[in-house]
Amino acid sequence: MHINFFTKEDEYIEAGIKLIADICSKTKKNPSVALSGGSTPKTLYSALSTSNKIPFDKIDFWQVDERYVKKTNQNSNYRLIEQTLLSGDKKPNSFHNFNTSLPLDKCLENYKKDLENNLHEDFDLIILGIGPDGHTASLFPNSDALKETKNPVAHTITDRFNVKDRLTLTFPPLLKSKNILILINGAEKMDTLNELTQGNKSTEDFPAKKLIEHPNLEIFYLH
Ligand code: 6PG
Known about the structure:
By secondary structure, this protein is α/β, with parallel strands linked by helices. 28% of the residues lie in helices and 20% in strands. It has helices at 9-25, 42-49, 77-83, 104-118, 171-176, 190-198, and strands spanning 2-6, 32-35, 60-63, 65-67, 94-96, 125-128, 153-157, 165-169, 180-185, 217-222. The strands form 2 sheets. Strands 1-10-9-6-2-3-5 form a 7-stranded parallel sheet, covered by helices on one side. The protein has a 3-stranded antiparallel sheet with strand order 4-8-7. The model has no long low-confidence stretch (mean pLDDT 97). 6-phosphogluconic acid binds at residues 36-40, 64-65, 77, 129-131, 135-138.
């Protein structure tokens, strides 16, 4: 685990682009990158949309998780990615997303099939955020989905954050990813960072803890 502290946003962004470029340079196939939603990744996604330092047109982008709302809803992670990462002239090799226009179970099943049919190796990179409660992706404390060992996707429910019904990757694909980047922004998340890296909460109570043992975990903290 490497914790990288930043006080300047441009250095944080530059380091993020460099990390992604390095990871993409290490694979012969099309790199696969899974994207979280929330607010933290917006600045990096926007910078990636115009960067000439990454092979944008070769990358297969995927979603880490989604809120079960229409793509046009302001809470949609698809909409967030469309308005940041995909807002420029560059087009990725592909962007695989949860089709929330379908009934929830069908949406989940379709994404699972998409992973089975089109993700031919483990993800090269998964970009994650973390909530103050230690949730990551849409894997919330004490959720049954934390125990999932086979199904790569799950439907989870939260009553603490906007949009109750969530669709998410489970820990198996997250932990099998070749690289993980956790983005944490703001002084208000210093406690979250400290609990993640030094605290003694269980992974049940603070799910992101499960990622700490990952061999290629980078944490970027901008404050
Ligand atoms: C989501 C994200 C979620 C996010 C955390 C942190 O759909 O909301 O995937 O896991 O990373 O909730 O959110 P912020 O970046 O907004 O603090």
